[in-house]
Amino acid sequence: MSSDARAHGDGVSFGPIAIPGAQVFYETSQTFALVNLKPVVPGHVLVCPRRSTPKFTDLSDEEISDLWRTVAVIQRALEREHDTSSSTLAIQDGPLAGQTVPHVHVHVLPRRVGDFARNDDVYDDLERWNADGSKALDDDRPPRSAEEMRAEADALRALF
Ligand code: AMP
Questions:
Q1: What pLDDT, on the 0 to 100 scale, is given for residue 52?
Q2: What is the pLDDT of residue 142?
Q3: Rounded percentage of the chain residues whose pLDDT exceeds 70
Q4: pLDDT > 90? residue 138
Q5: Which of these, 15, 18, 76, lies nearest to 45 by C-alpha position?
Q6: Probe target for ligand 1 pocket from 34, 41, 46, 148, with the most ligand atoms within 8 Å of CB
Q7: Are strands 24-27 and 106-110 parallel, antiparallel or unpaired?
Q8: How far is CA 17 from CA 11, 21, 22, 87, in A?
Q9: For the HIT domain, which residue ranges apply (predicted)?
Q10: All domains of the chain, ordered by start, with CATH?
Q11: What does the DSSP assignment read for 37-55?
């Protein structure tokens, strides 16, 4: 773990959602990263500012720097772990852009050959949440169990 990162402990707030510490695998003074309830691809995680605010444009320069520095640290580790050299990074910044959880979050998705029939279909899958946070009709992915998410977070924590 880097000198700026903290060991995992208490949970964090992800908008209105209380995320248990077991789901958080990386933290700095300004940023945390959590494993996803419904990953679009294996290794799809979320990186968030600690302060719960919906818009990227609400963040201070210091929060933006720490967020993107942390994204880079996590992206490098995920690409090594998933044996790839490509990732999709995405922010749905506001409800009209598809944001369902009103707390800035960068989606980090390691990409693999053939993971989608059309490469940009990844963005359709990122959209498969309704604006009120409920499941979209065409979303047949079950949410993962707390145990599955804990196991992934434990494995990811060991990478830093
Ligand atoms: P967006 O649609 O861009 O706001 O993305 C919301 C993301 O939050 C999706 O990737 C969801 O799978 C994820 N998500 C929603 N609830 C939880 C939760 N309790 N734990 C982890 N990830 C969540």
A1: 96
A2: 81
A3: 87
A4: no
A5: 76
A6: 46
A7: unpaired
A8: 10, 12, 14, 26
A9: 10-118
A10: 11-157 (3.30.428.10)
A11: SS-SSTT-EEEEESS--S-
